[in-house]
Structure prediction request, 360 residues.
Amino acid sequence: MAQTTPNHTQTVACWAAHDPSGKITPHVIKRRENGVDDVTIKILYCGICHTDLHHVRDDWGITMYPVVPGHEITGMVTKVGSNVKNFKIGDKVGVGCLAASCLKCEFCKSSQENYCDKLQFVYNGIFWDGSITYGGYSEMLVADHRFVVHLPENLSMAAVAPLLCAGITVFTPLKDNNLIESPGKKIGVVGLGGLGHVAIKFGKAFGHHVTVISTSPSKEKEAREVLGADDFIVSTNDEQMKAGTRTLDFILDTVAAKHSLGPILELLKVNGTLSLVGAPDQPIELPAFPLIFGKRTVKGSIIGGMKETQEMMDLCGKYNITCNIEVVKPDQINEALERLARNDVRYRFVIDIAGDSSNL
Ligand SMILES: [Zn+2]
Ligand SMILES: [Zn+2]
Prediction:
Protein backbone atom coordinates (compact mmCIF):
# COMPACT_ATOMS: atom_id res chain seq x y z
CA MET A 1 0.00 0.00 0.00
CA ALA A 2 1.20 3.49 -0.76
CA GLN A 3 2.08 5.86 2.02
CA THR A 4 -0.62 7.20 4.31
CA THR A 5 -0.70 10.93 4.86
CA PRO A 6 -3.60 11.68 7.17
CA ASN A 7 -2.63 15.25 7.87
CA HIS A 8 -4.84 17.27 5.60
CA THR A 9 -3.93 20.68 6.90
CA GLN A 10 -3.40 22.74 3.76
CA THR A 11 -6.21 25.06 2.71
CA VAL A 12 -6.63 25.30 -1.06
CA ALA A 13 -8.95 27.47 -3.15
CA CYS A 14 -10.85 25.45 -5.75
CA TRP A 15 -13.95 25.32 -7.94
CA ALA A 16 -16.48 22.66 -7.02
CA ALA A 17 -19.95 21.35 -7.85
CA HIS A 18 -22.16 20.68 -4.84
CA ASP A 19 -25.18 18.88 -6.29
CA PRO A 20 -26.42 17.35 -9.57
CA SER A 21 -27.27 20.78 -10.99
CA GLY A 22 -23.56 20.66 -11.80
CA LYS A 23 -23.13 24.35 -11.08
CA ILE A 24 -19.52 25.16 -10.25
CA THR A 25 -18.77 27.71 -7.53
CA PRO A 26 -15.60 28.82 -5.74
CA HIS A 27 -14.92 26.59 -2.77
CA VAL A 28 -12.19 25.70 -0.28
CA ILE A 29 -10.74 22.23 0.36
CA LYS A 30 -8.04 20.71 2.55
CA ARG A 31 -5.13 18.84 1.03
CA ARG A 32 -2.54 16.65 2.74
CA GLU A 33 0.89 17.89 3.73
CA ASN A 34 3.61 17.08 1.20
CA GLY A 35 4.69 13.49 2.14
CA VAL A 36 8.06 11.87 1.48
CA ASP A 37 6.90 10.48 -1.88
CA ASP A 38 4.93 13.58 -2.88
CA VAL A 39 5.46 16.69 -4.91
CA THR A 40 3.38 19.82 -4.41
CA ILE A 41 2.28 21.48 -7.63
CA LYS A 42 1.13 25.04 -8.20
CA ILE A 43 -1.57 24.42 -10.80
CA LEU A 44 -1.42 26.68 -13.84
CA TYR A 45 -3.85 25.01 -16.26
CA CYS A 46 -6.50 22.32 -16.21
CA GLY A 47 -8.34 20.89 -19.21
CA ILE A 48 -12.08 20.29 -19.13
CA CYS A 49 -12.81 16.67 -20.07
CA HIS A 50 -16.24 15.24 -20.90
CA THR A 51 -15.83 13.06 -17.81
CA ASP A 52 -15.90 16.24 -15.70
CA LEU A 53 -19.34 17.03 -17.07
CA HIS A 54 -20.61 13.53 -16.21
CA HIS A 55 -19.24 13.84 -12.68
CA VAL A 56 -20.56 17.29 -11.82
CA ARG A 57 -24.04 16.23 -13.00
CA ASP A 58 -23.80 12.79 -11.35
CA ASP A 59 -24.72 11.12 -14.65
CA TRP A 60 -23.17 7.85 -13.50
CA GLY A 61 -24.57 7.93 -9.95
CA ILE A 62 -21.09 7.78 -8.36
CA THR A 63 -20.34 11.42 -7.57
CA MET A 64 -19.28 12.31 -4.02
CA TYR A 65 -20.14 15.98 -3.52
CA PRO A 66 -18.60 18.43 -3.31
CA VAL A 67 -16.67 17.32 -6.38
CA VAL A 68 -13.62 19.21 -7.64
CA PRO A 69 -13.15 17.92 -11.20
CA GLY A 70 -10.12 18.11 -13.43
CA HIS A 71 -7.64 15.43 -14.54
CA GLU A 72 -5.68 17.28 -17.21
CA ILE A 73 -3.44 19.26 -14.88
CA THR A 74 -0.25 21.19 -15.62
CA GLY A 75 1.80 23.30 -13.25
CA MET A 76 5.09 23.93 -11.47
CA VAL A 77 6.64 21.92 -8.67
CA THR A 78 6.90 23.96 -5.47
CA LYS A 79 7.85 21.28 -2.94
CA VAL A 80 9.55 17.87 -3.17
CA GLY A 81 9.44 14.96 -0.69
CA SER A 82 12.67 13.37 0.57
CA ASN A 83 12.19 10.14 -1.45
CA VAL A 84 11.66 12.02 -4.71
CA LYS A 85 14.73 12.06 -6.94
CA ASN A 86 13.36 12.81 -10.40
CA PHE A 87 11.62 16.14 -9.75
CA LYS A 88 12.89 19.43 -8.39
CA ILE A 89 11.35 22.77 -7.48
CA GLY A 90 10.46 24.75 -10.59
CA ASP A 91 9.96 21.72 -12.86
CA LYS A 92 7.06 21.92 -15.32
CA VAL A 93 4.91 18.88 -14.68
CA GLY A 94 1.60 17.24 -15.51
CA VAL A 95 -0.89 15.04 -13.67
CA GLY A 96 -3.58 13.04 -15.41
CA CYS A 97 -6.33 10.70 -14.23
CA LEU A 98 -4.34 8.64 -11.73
CA ALA A 99 -3.66 9.51 -8.08
CA ALA A 100 -2.54 6.13 -6.74
CA SER A 101 -2.33 2.40 -7.42
CA CYS A 102 -1.10 -0.57 -5.37
CA LEU A 103 2.40 -0.45 -6.94
CA LYS A 104 2.74 -4.23 -6.39
CA CYS A 105 0.44 -6.10 -8.77
CA GLU A 106 1.37 -7.41 -12.21
CA PHE A 107 -0.11 -4.33 -13.86
CA CYS A 108 1.66 -1.82 -11.61
CA LYS A 109 4.93 -3.72 -12.08
CA SER A 110 4.59 -3.61 -15.85
CA SER A 111 3.76 0.11 -16.00
CA GLN A 112 0.06 -0.48 -16.63
CA GLU A 113 -1.10 1.16 -13.40
CA ASN A 114 -4.27 2.11 -15.26
CA TYR A 115 -5.39 -1.53 -15.00
CA CYS A 116 -4.56 -1.97 -11.29
CA ASP A 117 -7.71 -3.04 -9.46
CA LYS A 118 -6.77 -0.78 -6.55
CA LEU A 119 -6.42 2.22 -8.82
CA GLN A 120 -7.52 5.58 -7.37
CA PHE A 121 -8.51 8.46 -9.61
CA VAL A 122 -7.31 12.00 -9.17
CA TYR A 123 -10.80 13.24 -8.33
CA ASN A 124 -13.90 11.59 -6.93
CA GLY A 125 -11.61 8.76 -5.79
CA ILE A 126 -10.72 7.64 -2.28
CA PHE A 127 -7.06 7.97 -1.38
CA TRP A 128 -5.25 5.47 0.87
CA ASP A 129 -5.89 7.57 3.96
CA GLY A 130 -9.64 7.51 3.33
CA SER A 131 -9.84 11.06 2.03
CA ILE A 132 -11.76 11.91 -1.13
CA THR A 133 -9.51 13.06 -3.96
CA TYR A 134 -9.97 16.51 -5.46
CA GLY A 135 -8.87 17.36 -8.99
CA GLY A 136 -7.31 20.16 -10.94
CA TYR A 137 -9.98 22.85 -10.77
CA SER A 138 -7.93 24.14 -7.83
CA GLU A 139 -4.85 26.22 -7.16
CA MET A 140 -2.61 23.52 -5.74
CA LEU A 141 -2.23 19.74 -5.77
CA VAL A 142 -0.20 17.31 -3.66
CA ALA A 143 0.59 14.32 -5.85
CA ASP A 144 2.53 11.08 -5.42
CA HIS A 145 5.55 11.63 -7.72
CA ARG A 146 4.99 8.22 -9.35
CA PHE A 147 1.87 9.69 -10.96
CA VAL A 148 3.49 12.89 -12.22
CA VAL A 149 5.18 13.43 -15.61
CA HIS A 150 7.64 15.97 -16.92
CA LEU A 151 6.39 18.35 -19.61
CA PRO A 152 8.39 19.19 -22.74
CA GLU A 153 10.06 22.60 -22.38
CA ASN A 154 9.14 23.64 -25.93
CA LEU A 155 5.36 23.29 -25.63
CA SER A 156 2.61 25.50 -24.18
CA MET A 157 1.61 24.34 -20.70
CA ALA A 158 -2.00 25.17 -21.53
CA ALA A 159 -2.12 23.27 -24.80
CA VAL A 160 -0.42 20.14 -23.41
CA ALA A 161 -2.87 19.83 -20.49
CA PRO A 162 -5.49 17.81 -22.44
CA LEU A 163 -2.80 15.37 -23.53
CA LEU A 164 -2.93 14.00 -19.97
CA CYS A 165 -6.33 12.44 -20.60
CA ALA A 166 -7.44 12.92 -24.21
CA GLY A 167 -3.90 12.46 -25.53
CA ILE A 168 -2.93 9.35 -23.61
CA THR A 169 -6.34 7.80 -24.31
CA VAL A 170 -5.61 7.79 -28.04
CA PHE A 171 -1.83 7.26 -27.77
CA THR A 172 -2.00 3.94 -25.91
CA PRO A 173 -4.07 2.05 -28.51
CA LEU A 174 -1.69 3.27 -31.22
CA LYS A 175 1.27 1.98 -29.22
CA ASP A 176 -0.51 -1.27 -28.37
CA ASN A 177 -1.05 -1.88 -32.06
CA ASN A 178 2.55 -1.15 -33.00
CA LEU A 179 1.70 2.11 -34.77
CA ILE A 180 4.29 4.37 -33.14
CA GLU A 181 7.45 2.99 -34.75
CA SER A 182 6.08 1.44 -37.94
CA PRO A 183 4.89 4.12 -40.39
CA GLY A 184 2.91 3.70 -43.58
CA LYS A 185 -0.30 2.14 -42.24
CA LYS A 186 -3.80 3.26 -43.06
CA ILE A 187 -5.64 4.24 -39.92
CA GLY A 188 -9.15 5.51 -39.33
CA VAL A 189 -10.33 7.89 -36.62
CA VAL A 190 -14.05 7.80 -35.85
CA GLY A 191 -15.33 11.06 -34.37
CA LEU A 192 -13.64 14.44 -34.49
CA GLY A 193 -13.68 15.91 -30.99
CA GLY A 194 -11.25 16.24 -28.08
CA LEU A 195 -9.91 12.71 -28.59
CA GLY A 196 -10.21 12.49 -32.38
CA HIS A 197 -8.32 15.67 -33.18
CA VAL A 198 -5.27 14.51 -31.18
CA ALA A 199 -5.49 11.07 -32.77
CA ILE A 200 -5.16 12.65 -36.23
CA LYS A 201 -2.07 14.57 -35.11
CA PHE A 202 -0.46 11.44 -33.67
CA GLY A 203 -1.34 9.42 -36.76
CA LYS A 204 0.28 11.95 -39.06
CA ALA A 205 3.34 12.48 -36.83
CA PHE A 206 3.93 8.71 -36.77
CA GLY A 207 3.82 8.53 -40.56
CA HIS A 208 0.41 7.05 -41.31
CA HIS A 209 -2.36 7.76 -43.80
CA VAL A 210 -5.25 9.05 -41.67
CA THR A 211 -8.92 8.82 -42.60
CA VAL A 212 -11.51 10.59 -40.48
CA ILE A 213 -14.92 8.93 -40.26
CA SER A 214 -17.61 11.35 -39.12
CA THR A 215 -21.35 11.98 -39.32
CA SER A 216 -20.66 15.68 -40.01
CA PRO A 217 -19.68 16.61 -43.60
CA SER A 218 -19.08 20.15 -42.30
CA LYS A 219 -15.98 18.95 -40.45
CA GLU A 220 -14.15 17.77 -43.56
CA LYS A 221 -12.45 21.05 -44.44
CA GLU A 222 -11.00 21.52 -40.96
CA ALA A 223 -10.02 17.84 -40.64
CA ARG A 224 -8.01 18.04 -43.84
CA GLU A 225 -6.70 21.61 -43.84
CA VAL A 226 -6.13 22.34 -40.17
CA LEU A 227 -5.51 18.92 -38.65
CA GLY A 228 -3.82 17.24 -41.61
CA ALA A 229 -6.15 14.29 -42.27
CA ASP A 230 -5.60 12.60 -45.64
CA ASP A 231 -9.13 11.41 -46.21
CA PHE A 232 -12.63 11.93 -44.88
CA ILE A 233 -15.58 9.55 -44.96
CA VAL A 234 -19.10 10.70 -44.06
CA SER A 235 -20.45 7.70 -42.20
CA THR A 236 -24.04 8.37 -43.29
CA ASN A 237 -23.01 8.40 -46.96
CA ASP A 238 -23.44 4.81 -48.20
CA GLU A 239 -21.37 5.36 -51.33
CA GLN A 240 -18.40 6.72 -49.40
CA MET A 241 -18.64 3.93 -46.84
CA LYS A 242 -18.77 1.32 -49.61
CA ALA A 243 -15.77 2.83 -51.35
CA GLY A 244 -13.87 2.55 -48.06
CA THR A 245 -14.54 -1.16 -47.59
CA ARG A 246 -11.44 -3.12 -46.51
CA THR A 247 -9.11 -0.13 -46.78
CA LEU A 248 -7.94 0.43 -43.20
CA ASP A 249 -5.44 -1.44 -41.03
CA PHE A 250 -6.64 0.02 -37.76
CA ILE A 251 -9.54 2.14 -36.52
CA LEU A 252 -9.75 4.20 -33.35
CA ASP A 253 -13.36 4.83 -32.38
CA THR A 254 -13.67 7.91 -30.13
CA VAL A 255 -17.43 8.36 -30.31
CA ALA A 256 -19.27 8.48 -26.97
CA ALA A 257 -22.78 8.37 -28.49
CA LYS A 258 -24.55 5.09 -29.16
CA HIS A 259 -23.73 3.76 -32.64
CA SER A 260 -23.40 0.51 -34.57
CA LEU A 261 -19.93 -0.90 -35.13
CA GLY A 262 -21.04 -3.02 -38.10
CA PRO A 263 -20.56 -0.47 -40.90
CA ILE A 264 -17.32 0.80 -39.35
CA LEU A 265 -15.88 -2.72 -39.12
CA GLU A 266 -16.44 -3.17 -42.86
CA LEU A 267 -13.83 -0.44 -43.42
CA LEU A 268 -11.14 -2.64 -41.86
CA LYS A 269 -8.94 -4.91 -43.92
CA VAL A 270 -8.96 -8.62 -43.09
CA ASN A 271 -7.35 -9.09 -39.67
CA GLY A 272 -7.77 -5.39 -38.82
CA THR A 273 -8.43 -4.05 -35.33
CA LEU A 274 -10.95 -1.56 -34.05
CA SER A 275 -10.10 0.00 -30.70
CA LEU A 276 -12.89 1.61 -28.68
CA VAL A 277 -11.96 4.59 -26.52
CA GLY A 278 -15.27 6.47 -26.53
CA ALA A 279 -17.65 5.34 -23.80
CA PRO A 280 -21.30 5.23 -24.87
CA ASP A 281 -23.49 4.66 -21.81
CA GLN A 282 -25.74 2.32 -23.82
CA PRO A 283 -24.55 -1.05 -25.17
CA ILE A 284 -23.16 -0.74 -28.67
CA GLU A 285 -24.37 -2.79 -31.61
CA LEU A 286 -21.77 -5.37 -32.62
CA PRO A 287 -22.93 -7.64 -35.45
CA ALA A 288 -21.02 -10.92 -35.84
CA PHE A 289 -20.73 -11.07 -39.64
CA PRO A 290 -18.16 -8.27 -40.17
CA LEU A 291 -16.04 -9.87 -37.43
CA ILE A 292 -16.24 -13.40 -38.83
CA PHE A 293 -15.90 -12.57 -42.51
CA GLY A 294 -12.95 -10.28 -41.93
CA LYS A 295 -11.24 -12.01 -38.96
CA ARG A 296 -11.45 -8.63 -37.30
CA THR A 297 -10.88 -7.70 -33.67
CA VAL A 298 -12.71 -5.22 -31.44
CA LYS A 299 -11.02 -4.18 -28.23
CA GLY A 300 -11.16 -1.37 -25.67
CA SER A 301 -8.60 0.75 -23.86
CA ILE A 302 -8.60 3.22 -20.98
CA ILE A 303 -6.00 6.02 -20.68
CA GLY A 304 -2.46 4.65 -20.22
CA GLY A 305 0.23 3.82 -17.69
CA MET A 306 2.67 6.39 -16.34
CA LYS A 307 5.64 5.21 -18.44
CA GLU A 308 3.52 5.53 -21.58
CA THR A 309 2.26 8.93 -20.49
CA GLN A 310 5.85 10.19 -20.18
CA GLU A 311 6.74 8.59 -23.52
CA MET A 312 3.77 10.33 -25.14
CA MET A 313 4.77 13.69 -23.65
CA ASP A 314 8.35 13.29 -24.89
CA LEU A 315 7.12 12.41 -28.39
CA CYS A 316 4.78 15.43 -28.33
CA GLY A 317 7.82 17.57 -27.54
CA LYS A 318 9.75 15.96 -30.40
CA TYR A 319 6.94 16.32 -32.95
CA ASN A 320 5.54 19.59 -31.59
CA ILE A 321 2.12 18.12 -30.89
CA THR A 322 -0.34 19.98 -28.69
CA CYS A 323 -4.11 20.15 -28.45
CA ASN A 324 -6.20 22.84 -30.11
CA ILE A 325 -7.67 24.63 -27.15
CA GLU A 326 -9.88 27.49 -26.03
CA VAL A 327 -8.61 29.03 -22.80
CA VAL A 328 -11.22 30.12 -20.24
CA LYS A 329 -11.02 31.86 -16.88
CA PRO A 330 -12.26 30.06 -13.75
CA ASP A 331 -15.42 32.21 -13.69
CA GLN A 332 -16.28 30.86 -17.16
CA ILE A 333 -16.24 27.17 -16.15
CA ASN A 334 -20.05 26.86 -16.05
CA GLU A 335 -20.38 28.40 -19.48
CA ALA A 336 -17.64 26.12 -20.81
CA LEU A 337 -19.35 23.03 -19.38
CA GLU A 338 -22.64 24.03 -21.01
CA ARG A 339 -20.91 24.54 -24.34
CA LEU A 340 -19.11 21.21 -23.94
CA ALA A 341 -22.48 19.51 -23.40
CA ARG A 342 -23.49 20.87 -26.83
CA ASN A 343 -20.14 19.83 -28.38
CA ASP A 344 -19.50 23.51 -29.00
CA VAL A 345 -15.72 23.53 -28.60
CA ARG A 346 -12.75 23.08 -30.90
CA TYR A 347 -11.40 20.94 -29.38
CA ARG A 348 -10.81 21.32 -25.67
CA PHE A 349 -11.43 23.97 -23.02
CA VAL A 350 -8.51 24.65 -20.72
CA ILE A 351 -8.95 26.67 -17.53
CA ASP A 352 -6.32 29.31 -16.87
CA ILE A 353 -6.23 28.54 -13.15
CA ALA A 354 -3.48 30.94 -12.15
CA GLY A 355 -4.20 33.77 -14.61
CA ASP A 356 -0.60 33.44 -15.72
CA SER A 357 -0.44 34.02 -19.46
CA SER A 358 3.37 33.65 -19.53
CA ASN A 359 3.09 29.88 -19.92
CA LEU A 360 0.32 29.78 -22.51
ZN1 LIG B 1 -10.71 12.80 -19.15
ZN1 LIG C 1 -1.52 -2.51 -8.79
About this structure: The radius of gyration is 20 Å. The chain has ten helices and 17 strands.
